[in-house]
Every structure is written in C-alpha cells, then in structure tokens.
Amino acid sequence: MDVNEAINNFCTHNDIDLENDYLVKSERKYLYNLKNNVTKWINGIPDEETKCILLNLFSEYEYVSTVKFQDRMEEMFNDIRNYLNTVEVVNQFGQINNDEILFITVESKYASGSQEIISAFRYINTSVKQQNIIAEFDKALETSGFLDSYKVVVLIDDIVGSGWTISDNAKKIAEKIISNTDSLPLFLVCSAYCKRSKNKKDKAFAKSIDKYRSSFKKDIMIVPLFKENINGILKTKKDEKEIIEKYEHLINEEFRHDLEERSNNVIDKAKHQQLQEDINCLNYEMGFKNGALGISFYYNTPNNTLSSFWLKTKTNTPPFLREEKKIELLLQDIQKAKKKTDQNNYKAKCIDCITSKNTYENEHE
After folding, report:
1. CA dist., res. 64 & res. 51, Å (int)
2. By C-alpha distance, which of 329, 216, 286, 352 is closest to 57?
3. Tens-place pLDDT, residues 192-207
4. Is 108 in a helix, a strand, or coil?
C-alpha cells in the first residue's frame, strides 16, 4: 500500500472529503496538508516493514471530526435520557427533567477536551442551559447549596482508554458530592468513546470504584454508561506487533534522550536529578498504559493512541501531533533551570574577573 491508497482508505473510512475547503480549513490542525504530512512521516521511518504496517494502520485510523463528535455526544445524551427514563430510576428518583441534571466534564492536569465537550453538548442540546454543564466543579461548589437543585450529576469525558483518569475523577467528585449535599443524587459516569476490551469497561470501572467505597462517608449510586466503540489498533499478527513495538521503543528512547541532553547543562544536582526522574517517567510506548488505540479528535490526540502517530522525535514526524502539557511543562522546567545555571555561571565569571583584576593591581602597586 502506498501513501495515496492509504490516504484514500483513511478518507473513506472516516467519510472525509479533502477537497472540501471548508472542512479542511475549519479542521486544519490535522486535515490541512495531510497528504504531505503523512508522506513526510512515512519517508522518515527507516525500516520498510514498519512503514508498511503503519500505513495499513493509518488507513483504518479513526479521525473524529466536529460533526462526528457532535453526533456521538448526541448519542451519549440519548443514552443518559433513556437510562433516566427507566422504571427503576423513576421509581427511586422520580421523573427527572434536564434542568435537574448537572453535567461535569473530566478535568486532566495535562490535557483535556472539556471546552470541546461543552461546545458540542450545548450545540446538539439547546434545552441544556449554560449553568447545567460545567468544567470547574470545585469553583462551582464555592456557591452555598449549589447541588441542592440537582437530582443527577453526570461526569462526561471524550474517551476512556485505560479508565484510570475517569475512575480517579469519579472518586474525587463522588466524595465532594457526599460532602456538599444531604440529598444524595444519582451519579452517572459517561464517555463519548471507549476502548473495547475482553472485560467490559463498566464492570472494570465498578470494580475500581468499589475499592474507594470504604473511604466514602455515605453510600452513593454510581452508574457507568460506557458504550465500547473503539478497538485497539493492533489487530495484527504477532510478528507485525513486535515490529511496531520495536519502533515504539526506538522513538520513545529518542524522545527521552533528547530531553536528557537538554537537561545536562543544569548544574544544580538536586534539580538535575529531579528532571531525570521526570523524564524517565515519560513512557508512551504502545500508547499510555499500552492503550494501542488509533484515534484522533479534531482538537487533539489522546495519549492512549499509538505514539507513532503523535510523538515527535528525530525519526518520527507524526501526522497527528499531540499537544501534551506534561511535556511542555517539563521543557519549561528545563529551560528555567538552564537559565538559572547560565546566570550563576555568568556571576561566577564576573567574580573571577574582579578577583583577577584586584590580584593584578595588588601585585603591581
């Protein structure tokens, strides 16, 4: 398969027309100049077998456009409404209208699609008011009695890969719900996209939440509504997987080595050691937590995706470059430490010059 065929298959799979100027311009982050970007990426890969496998994977890659994302959010909203209208829920909580639902987006320290979720959710649900969907839950809780008017709290995310982020968020929010209201609402946890797995994600999530229950002051009804709709990308033969694993290892080693070189000029031993520890923790081989997904949203690429598609290194110039705050913050940290080292070196040189000058003058008086 050559690049042209892979591009055509990718467009067909995702119902994308690269001749549509409006689409390409509105989603220029990834679609603008896509063919050239894929060509540059593939040409930079040194091994022919790796090129062939990655091109095949690219041809089946999932690209979530604005329209597709809005459609998925609408499906998720309908899933929520259908669940809330079940006899079991109505008998326990009564009839629930949209004004009595609080939607909260998952917040991540390093990357988040919160604003995109809010925009898409409000676009397809004009009945959902602005105050009913929020990103800053902690700030909202500063208002006394904020939760009293809601019967249901819904935590929503764009994608669940390993399940770690959404489980951690759910635990923290459940604790805050319990601490801030006596009338315990129903707590739903939902995602627009979810990785398919042998063990159902909702069961795995429930098991994860059960570990936290002993720390909860009161009981709370936590219900996952995950629709498993994304496959791991490597439905390949064992030998093909091993080839991709080698390439993933190569580019991640390059990535860490580059960061280590940047930090080598930091003289402060404690700071240098901390930077090395932070660098060593950055491992995206086969995607975060070995997610091996093949998906990008029009606004960013999840780190669960195979890093070959988004991690930039000397060898790898990916078509779906990810904006990763964790990496940006580390680079800023290195730059600050180097700047401080340079300033200290400059001061030391100035002191040496003054000392040398004084010594010379004293010797020649």
Report:
1. 24
2. 286
3. 888 877 666 677 777 7
4. coil
Query: Which pair of tokens denotes residue 109?
Result: 């320290």
Phi and psi angles of residue 104, each rounded to the nearest 5 degrees, phi first: -125, 130
Q: Which amino acid is at 17?
A: D
Q: Please report, as a single letter, which amino acid is at residue 80.
A: I
Looking at residue 236, the DSSP 8-state letter turns out to be S
State the DSSP H helix or E strand holding residue 225, giving kind and residue range, or none if neither.
strand 222-226
Q: Which SS3 state, helix, strand or coil, does residue 65 take?
A: coil
Q: How confident is the model at residue 360 (pLDDT cuts 50, 70, 90)?
A: very low
| Residues ≥6 apart with Cβ < 8 Å to 124 | 70, 73, 74, 77
Which strand (E) or helix (H) includes residue 210?
Answer: helix 201-212
Report CA 322 to chain centroid distance, whole Å. Answer: 9
- pLDDT tens profile 51-108: 999 999 999 999 999 999 999 999 999 999 999 999 999 998 899 999 999 999 987 6
Bridge partner list, 225: 190
Taking the C-alpha atoms of residue 50 and residue 306, their distance in angstroms, rounded to an integer, is 13
Q: Confirm if 96 and 154 have CB atoms less than 8 A apart.
A: no
Give the CA count within 13 Å in the CB-facing half-sphere of 131.
9
User: 62-64 and 186-194: which strand pairing?
Assistant: unpaired
What's phi and psi for 253, nearest 5 deg?
Answer: -65, -45
Compute the distance between CA of residue 222 and CA of residue 152 in angstroms, rounded to an integer.
Answer: 10
Task: Give the amino acid at 86.
Answer: T
